[in-house]
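Q: Joint fold for the lines below.
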Amino acid sequence: MMADDHDGTTSGEAAETAVEKHASSASPGVAVERADRIPNPGFPPERLRVTDTDPAKERAAERTVSGLFLLSVVGSVLAVVAYFAFPIVEGDPSTIRLNNLFLGLGITLGLLGIGIGAVHWSKALMHGHELVEERHGTRGSDETRAKAVEIFQAGNAESGFTRRSLVRNTLIGALVATPIPAIAIFRDLAPAEDPIALLKHTMWEEGVRLTRDPSGTPIKASEVTIGSAFHVIPEGLTELESHKLEEKAKAAVLLMRLPLDRLNEREDRQGWSYDGIVAYSKICTHVGCPVALYEQQTHHLLCPCHQSEFDVANHAEVIFGPAARPLPQLPITVDEEGYLVAKSDFTEPVGPSFWERAL
Amino acid sequence: MRFTGWAANYIDERTSASTAVKTLGRKIFPDHWSFMLGEVALYSFVVILLSGTFLTFFFDPSMTEVEYEGSYVPLQGIPMSVAYHSSLDISFEIRGGLLMRQVHHWAALLFVASIGLHMLRVFFTGAFRKPRELNWVIGFLLFVLAMALGFTGYSLPDDLLSGNGLRIIDGMIKAVPLAGGWISYLLFGDEFPGTDIIPRLYVLHILLLPAILVALIGAHMVLLIVNKHTQFAGPGRTNDNVVGAPVMPVFAAKAGGFFFIVFGVIVLIASLFTINPIWNYGPYDPSPVSAGTQPDWYIGFADGALRLIPPHLETVIFGYTWSWNVLIPLVGLLVFLAAAALYPFLEAWVTGDKREHHIAERPRNNPTRTAIGAAGVTFYAGLWAAASSDLIATHFRLSIEGVIHALQFVTVVGPFIAYFVTKRVCLALMRKDREIALHGFESGRIVRLPGGEYIEVHEQLDDYERWKLVSYEEYQPLMVRPDARGRITARQRVRASMSRWFFEDRISPVTQRELESQRH
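A: Joint structure:
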């Protein structure tokens, strides 16, 4: 285990003999083992560093190293000084930047001083010769392995692990069964409801007004001009006591008005729009990001997460990107006061697909 | 001095520490710049632990809704989770809090990056070969854990960006056949987003995952000591020795110093450059999103995989939905990662080489492996670039469709191109090495012979320099031979064709005979 110092002349031979000595019995597989390989020339003559030959250089390196260590002390002190000298003043964000900067620079100096100093010490001043250590096969010696086998056999004989097969097999059975409660007790990670049913409904229902996100003020059909897009939430969402974000994550809607000649409506969705105003789920059918980018010239919706593109003029069908399905449409109309309201909930689950979605 | 002696004796009489010092104190570590990549990973992890511990003293993972009352004016009065509020407080109210947040985040980015580069170094030099296959697998698990730790940590501030990240995870989980909806429901403790996910991720992030990571790092280090470090071929270095600096004092000083350098550089970056300015994003809300958002770099390949899938890939079979647009990237990435984890066993099977290997190979000397690695890197790079497809499009004024199509090409066809180009380059470099080993290098000295002829003098390498060029392993394709019962099994045939694929094109190292005949 002890490493030997080497010099260029003798240990080259030693290196050669090492190859011979350990010419292993393990199969080389398809490796080619040539007899006339070029032999290992052994260690080259060592090259001395300037600090090895010039005492003045050595002293200079010594001064540099201790200078760096001293610089580190200065840095650590400066960091503490900066901590107090650059306090965070409320209402003045620039003080945060200064605190961050000078505290950080002080710590940096403290760390780099030690780091560069230590590395320089090791490279310029510490004994620079390469040392050699023999490797030994990783495998235990035959003797050791025989001992290990003996121990296992003794363990087996003394316990009767293989002989008493009933004991062994019931133990294995018991061990397999013990983790089952650990899986079962995780059931209460979530409330005792069927999540699939929850995924299929949103807050929208007949007569619920379309309101602005996030203020919650209702929207008149006359306010929706061509080219504009409204981020919409159902009325009452902002007053919810609980599950506000959960409901919003399903009910968020985009509202746009298209010129009537551009709007291409499906036969079975006649009456889902109002005077060119259409409402689509804002939750991407890919993995659920908000499809928030509306291009008013082309009437395309773009999901900023994975760039799925939906064509609002053609019932929000997918024209590019990884999404598979069109955005679900929310059927809308106006109430007697002229406010936009939903005619019903979405007729299909919104957001990303799930196993039971189409059932 | 008397105190040191007394203390050493006190400890040794109780711990037998002298045995450890005797076995490890003068252990030899070979030197090469690429060996420092793993060290960077280790040291940045220490920085992560230190800065992360500081952050836990101030961070509150609760998702209870509160109104912001801190000093950052644009967000005052806005409802947000306690988690986001406390993250803002760490940034704006606590001296050094922003610095530690940034140190933590930068160190995490560096941690995953250095693990990745370390893995590439190990792969391309064949340092995963026997007896180090298991340590490769442990290292692979560390890489996956590092990404998991990164993602859980990224989610904790509960800002708009990280919330959208979780939304994507939720969408991917929901696509899992049979149980996706249920898994998501149990994970989030409710419908997405619920009020449980941040505390749960917090426990994973600061307790469970780090505990596993530390245990695996321990195992990684123990195996490193047992196997001893690989070294590059060089004069005097053999498969049976280790040449380098002893732990005490040179390696300890270098490595210890290097820890402080890594730490210092991380703090320097953190004091100069903002990372993850959560105050710009606002609290999580499922409705708004900002354009041009990016995940942390190491999640990019997964996000990119999601982006590259062509439209409309979903089928409903007997009423059940198969979301191929999510399942293909998910399974594809798992296969990619599994292939990386299992590669050492594949190569060992193909070569049938059961010897121990302690000499790190030069990548060129194993052209097929290097080409496979280049193909893998290209595949990863295509996915990774795709995570920035929108930014690439806006920065270079290209259409998003064009960028996606180009990156689909890079990801699908690119690996094949990379494979062939790399393999040819490796073989060419080996030929050049052979040429130089045999005939020397061009000295640039032109000599006019008495007959008027001009020649350029070639200068021979000395033995030490030549050794680096000629001391590599050579393999030949497996010949199919009938086994003891006179049969040729299908397994044999597969192995033979794999072996042909690996070693059909090969350049033999210069032999002593060739060298001598050249000299006369």
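Q: Anything notable?
A: The first helix of chain A runs from residue 11 to 21. The radius of gyration of chain A is 38 Å.
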